[in-house]
Amino acid sequence: MRVRKSATLAASALVLALTATACGSDDSNGGSSDGGDSNDTLTIGIKYDQPGLGLQTADGDFTGFDVDIARYVAAELGVEEDDITWRQAQSPERENMIKNGDVDFIVATYSITDQRKEEVSFAGPYFVAAQDLLMRSGESISSNDEIGDLNLCSVSGSTSAQKIQEDIAPDANLQPYGGYSECLTGLENGAVDALTTDNTILAGYAAQDEHQGKFELAGLDLGPEHYGIGIPKDDTELQEKINAALEKMFEDGAWAEAVEKNLGPAGFEVPDAPEITEGK
Amino acid sequence: MSNLSVLYDAPGPKAKARNVVYTVLFLVGFAALVWWVLAAMADKGQLDADKWSPFVTDSRVWTTFLLPALGNTLKAAALSIIIALPLGAALGIGRMSDHRWVRLPCAAIIEFFRAIPVLLLMLFASAVYVEFTNINSDMRPLYAVVTGLVLYNASVIAEVVRAGILSLPRGQKDAAQAIGMRKGQMMTQVLLPQSVTLMLPALVSQLVVVVKDTALGGVMLNFDELLRSVRTISANYGANTIAAFTVVALIFIVLNFLLTSAATWLERTIRRGKRTAGAVVTADPHDQMEAQPAAAPAAEAGDPPTPTGKD
Amino acid sequence: MFDFLDLQRYDLFGAFWVTAQLAVFSAIGSLILGTILAGMRVSPVPLMRVFGTGYVNIVRNTPLTVIILFTSLGLFQTLGIAMGGDTFTETNFRLAVLGLTAYTAAFVCEALRSGINTVPVGQAEAARALGLSFTQVLRLVVLPQAFRSVVAPLANVLIALTKNTTVAAAIGVAEAALLMKTMIENEAQVFLIGGIFALGFILLTLPTGLLLGWVSKRVAVKR
């Protein structure tokens, strides 16, 4: 009898666990079932660990340039801020999240590329970033030729890392890590000379209170990255609405304000608003 | 040779003095190392108060980042072990079946998944879920991590179960057959209940392995577990990666230390229980297993209980 | 079917060669360090026993991923220990070997200690009666017998080590698991890729297990 009891116990524990996970996934699916153009709620994918762009703060709140863009667009789509569900959109997951319908759209340093356009569509661009280097203050280099002599750090598999290895400086000593904050520790301690990726991401780090005066951008332009808002493939209705919202944001000054607020502290000058190309 | 003092003579005055010298030299060397590490860290600004103080002064680090992440670690570990237990028991019992068509596939499955790194299993599971299912991206890392851990640990548990049952005296089986029990009855009413207690310590130790392996999912599959939370914390508190990393490592060590202690305590309790109620099982099978690690078949089956490597 | 196996782009053999090198160097290192630790754990100096026990308990309870990342972030990035490597590739490989060695040594130590427990008391007593010192007792009498009785558990530790080398992917060492991750992200044939890498690891671990199993039977001390 004791055996049967423990067997039943184990079985019911298993069933419980399975239903618990099943419920979990049901819950998290709930937000996105409404579709992009519904008026009440939105599920938006952002970065959670990118200071200046998309960051989950200690209060559980979200800040950053991407987040401000997303909030503005959501407001234009008629969605209250409280009705936005934020979702973490990690770089390798972004196409899948859109294809699966986990999110309505993604604002997460998402560069518009032809390869990605085979799977998803974009609205925007809302910003044109450039690949750059972040170095310790006072160590800046003047030309691209000197990059090959530096000990570089970037995120493994990122486009920035690939560009360095394939085009800019194939012989450069490149340390790949899982995240930029690991690179920052090496940069702070002198084990690497420069961290390379989009200048927006770099500015986000340099602008943090703890880093005031420690790091600065080299100011190189190693190639543009057009940040777009990722949407389901061929959803032209949503694309038009978001594009209109972005146009309005460029014009009424909210866009420049968002750039200044999030990236300005790193000495980032507010550029001209980009021209919207997607869906045109 | 469990009393190790047999390896050396009781120290006389000379040996005692020498021991003191060794101790002092060792302490000085150790202190110098610690000093050098701290000096190097201070030199690089890694000991600055603002890198470490959030963990003490700002409770939000715990409530927003560390505790939910720890919750995910525990959730993945618990799910894995709960699902792997029945699977592993079935595989282990299947491997002892009288029918070759049951025995051989079970053995093949067990040996296959024991030979493959758990990281490969996780990566593979994740790719399969991306390709063939539409589990949403929030849950997929958890599914992939749990799948990898279940596949691997079920085969380890199968071997633990088999070792537990094989370690029972043959008389148990004979007696069960003699009173006319069917094979299933013998397993569920005689052999399994007796071996479960013997297996408990090994199973708890296996839980430590599972907890440790979840960290792999954090780094390689972006599963939101404890080690992964280092990245979000250091994004918020000025790249205090080293500090966050140290705190997370300490949490892991304390958690696993508690689990290991539980396993040791269980083992001791079970052994003591045996000694008083000695009539049930004559030879203490657990002692046997540990005492002859070289005796080939028993040892191979019995190796999971002594933790080996990371598996 | 195998057209995606662009060996120019995906250096399959190179990756497994790195895996094998990681395993061999770490095995040698951990056998040495593990033996020293086991010696410390049975030594007459109390402080050394405390250190040995502490080391094993802490390392065994720490995820290997944490240890490997620590060698990179702590030892290299913070303390500046580059292990004599000129490039990050060299440094990362050596750091990974160091991390794997430090981790596996704790398990070698435990296996060896249980081996020491199987050596009959009379052996050590006889050795001491001959006037051998502690290190001589250990080196000439006890350890040789202990090693022979723990070949099978040590084989398991070494097989686990071979599988654990995949964790080096966390600091960007270009070994098998990292290549598999890249290939799975870029190519569609999930099952084929999974099968190839599974086969690779079976080819690495199976002969080790069989060989050491045979050795363990041959050298077992008959009592």
Automatic annotation (TrEMBL), chain A:
PROSITE patterns linked to this entry: PROKAR_LIPOPROTEIN, SBP_BACTERIAL_3
SMART domains, sorted: PBPb (SM00062)
Taxonomy, superkingdom: Bacteria
Keywords: Signal, Transport
Pfam families, A to Z: SBP_bac_3
Domain Solute-binding protein family 3/N-terminal: 41-266
Signal peptide feature range: 1-22
Gene3D superfamilies: Periplasmic binding protein-like II (3.40.190.10)
GO cellular component: extracellular region; outer membrane-bounded periplasmic space
GO biological process, one term: amino acid transport
Family according to the record: Belongs to the bacterial solute-binding protein 3 family.
Name assigned to this protein: Glutamate ABC transporter substrate-binding protein
Automatic annotation (TrEMBL), chain B:
Membrane association type: Multi-pass membrane protein
Gene Ontology BP, a term: amino acid transport
Ranges that cross the membrane: 20-42, 76-94, 106-130, 142-169, 190-211, 242-266
Pfam families to which the protein is assigned, alphabetical: BPD_transp_1 (PF00528)
Molecular-function GO terms, alphabetical: transmembrane transporter activity
Gene3D superfamilies xref list: MetI-like
Cellular localisation: Cell membrane
Lineage: superkingdom: Bacteria
Residue span(s) of domain ABC transmembrane type-1: 70-260
Keyword Cytoplasm: no
Bias (Low complexity): 290-303
One CC-aspect GO term: ATP-binding cassette (ABC) transporter complex
Main location: membrane
Chain segments carrying region Disordered: 281-311
Keywords: Cell membrane, Membrane, Transmembrane, Transmembrane helix, Transport
NCBIfam families: HEQRo_perm_3TM
Alphabetized PANTHER family for the sequence: AMINO ACID ABC TRANSPORTER PERMEASE, MEMBRANE COMPONENT OF AMINO ACID ABC TRANSPORTER
Family according to the record: Belongs to the binding-protein-dependent transport system permease family.
Protein's UniProt name: Amino acid ABC transporter permease
UniProtKB/TrEMBL annotation, chain C:
Domain ABC transmembrane type-1: residue ranges: 16-212
Localisation: Cell membrane
Keyword annotations: Amino-acid transport, Cell membrane, Membrane, Transmembrane, Transmembrane helix, Transport
GO biological process terms, semicolon-separated: amino acid transport
Gene3D superfamilies in the cross-refs: MetI-like
InterPro entries: AA_ABC_transptr_permease_3TM, ArtM/GltK/GlnP/TcyL/YhdX-like, MetI-like, MetI-like_sf
Keyword Transmembrane helix: yes
Membrane topology of the entry: Multi-pass membrane protein
Predominant subcellular localization, coarse grouping: membrane
Domain of life: Bacteria
CDD domains found in the cross-reference section: TM_PBP2
GO MF terms, alphabetically ordered: transmembrane transporter activity
Annotated Gene Ontology cellular component terms: ATP-binding cassette (ABC) transporter complex
Family membership: Belongs to the binding-protein-dependent transport system permease family. HisMQ subfamily.
Record-given protein name: Amino acid ABC transporter permease
Lineage: Bacteria, Bacillati, Actinomycetota, Actinomycetes, Kitasatosporales
